[in-house]
Amino acid sequence: MVVRRQAQVIRVRPERIDEYEAIHREVWPGVLATIERCNIRNYSIYRMGDLLFSYFEYAGEDYEADMAVMAADPVTQEWWKLTEPMQEPLEGRGDGEWWMTIPEVFHTD
Amino acid sequence: MVVRRQAQVIRVRPERIDEYEAIHREVWPGVLATIERCNIRNYSIYRMGDLLFSYFEYAGEDYEADMAVMAADPVTQEWWKLTEPMQEPLEGRGDGEWWMTIPEVFHTD
Question: Model-level pTM?
Answer without folding.
Answer: 0.96
